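Weekly sync, protein design subgroup
Attendees: M.S., D.O., the rotation student, P.L. (late)

Item 1: inverse folding check
M.S. brought a backbone from last month's batch and wanted to see whether the design step gives back something sensible before we order anything. D.O. pointed out we never logged the input encoding, so this time it goes straight into the notes. Structure tokens as presented (360 positions):
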């Protein structure tokens, strides 16, 4: 097959590309330029998409003996990921930009262009497994959790449709991270010990609040309890997420002395509501825009749901009501924030994902 290997400049994508070459595919490497003004170097494990990353990807491609290109997708990334991130915070939501990048960039913009250029699949270094359960249906693909639970990325891939999964390759799904680094060293890839990227790639300094302030400005408002009693003030409701405990700077301590958490964010009134941890507990989740990875299901079914990239799955009953996904969990979840994705599993297989909406 003709395979386009997305190479970020990190160890995972380099080894994934190497495995695609070793499997006998005709592989071409591509680095995605996602920033109009990339930094020259990364700050340790923060960010990605720097000039250093592009050079590292090119050097890995040279070692593998494959053609290599840089695709400028900065405009698309800014519109579909960065602007969406800012708009979601302005609406009082908590977005996941990595999930949005997979949906809009890597498996939409990149895959669409790859197919138009005659490639059969896009290969990435994501930790997830693709399973073809029926040999008589080679086009049917299931997305499963990776063997390395600590690195599993099936959650952020839960937005992919069956047709996209059919043209995806995740060669690292059956491997633990330590073995990937050892393999990179054996193959002579200089990125073998390169730190993993953390935090949000387009905020390399890690200052999310400063990033949002530069785009949304500051707007003083109040922090209140569930009864509306003013407890403090803030410079913008976009500084907060549901479930947040630190940085509230409340002037009035709780009567019982226990810490308080963000329960609700209202951008319209610019009010942040706080309260005790137990007020965060939710057993019923409603979510819009469901995406089915293996085809839609009807009626109620038993599975598990996960609401954070590295959260624990919780057993639940899931169904679709009037086009909206509804999940009732067996035990309460804490800090379920609008804008997050809820990803539904059947065992290790991803079934669907949807975007959580405000509920009471």
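Designed sequence read out in the meeting:
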């Amino acid at each position: 097959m003709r395979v386009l290997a997305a190479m970020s400049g990190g160890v995972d994508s380099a080894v994934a590309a190497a495995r695609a070459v070793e499997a006998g595919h005709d592989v071409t490497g591509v680095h995605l330029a996602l920033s109009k003004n990339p930094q020259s170097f990364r700050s340790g494990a923060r960010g990605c998409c720097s000039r250093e990353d592009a050079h590292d990807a090119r050097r890995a491609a040279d070692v593998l003996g494959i053609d290599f290109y840089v695709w400028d997708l900065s405009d698309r990334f800014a519109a579909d990921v960065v602007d969406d991130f800012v708009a979601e915070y302005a609406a009082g939501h908590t977005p996941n930009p990595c999930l949005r990048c997979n949906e809009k960039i890597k498996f939409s913009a990149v895959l669409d262009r790859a197919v138009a250029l005659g490639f059969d699949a896009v290969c990435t270094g994501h930790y997830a497994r693709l399973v073809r359960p029926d040999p008589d249906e080679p086009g049917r693909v299931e997305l499963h959790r990776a063997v390395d639970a600590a690195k599993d990325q099936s959650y952020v891939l839960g937005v992919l449709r069956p047709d996209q999964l059919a043209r995806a390759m995740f060669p690292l799904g059956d491997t633990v991270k330590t073995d990937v680094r050892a393999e990179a060293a054996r193959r002579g890839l200089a990125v073998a010990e390169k730190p993993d990227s953390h935090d949000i790639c387009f905020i390399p300094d890690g200052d999310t609040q400063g990033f949002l302030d530069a785009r949304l400005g500051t707007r003083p408002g109040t922090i209140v309890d569930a009864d509306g009693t003013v407890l403090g003030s803030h410079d913008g409701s976009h500084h907060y997420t549901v479930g947040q405990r630190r940085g509230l700077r409340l002037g009035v301590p709780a009567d019982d002395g226990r810490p308080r958490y963000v329960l609700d964010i209202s951008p319209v009134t610019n009010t942040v509501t706080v309260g005790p941890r137990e007020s965060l507990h939710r057993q019923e989740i409603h979510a819009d825009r469901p995406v089915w990875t293996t085809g839609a299901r009807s009626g109620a079914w038993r599975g598990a749901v996960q609401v954070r990239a590295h959260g624990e799955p919780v057993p639940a009953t899931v169904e679709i009501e009037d086009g909206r996904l509804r999940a009732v969990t067996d035990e309460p979840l804490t800090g379920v924030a609008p804008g997050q994705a809820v990803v539904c599993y059947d065992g290790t297989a991803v079934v669907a994902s949807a975007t959580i909406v405000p509920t009471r």
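Discussion: The radius of gyration is 22 Å. The mean pLDDT is 91.
Action: P.L. to compare against the previous round before Friday.
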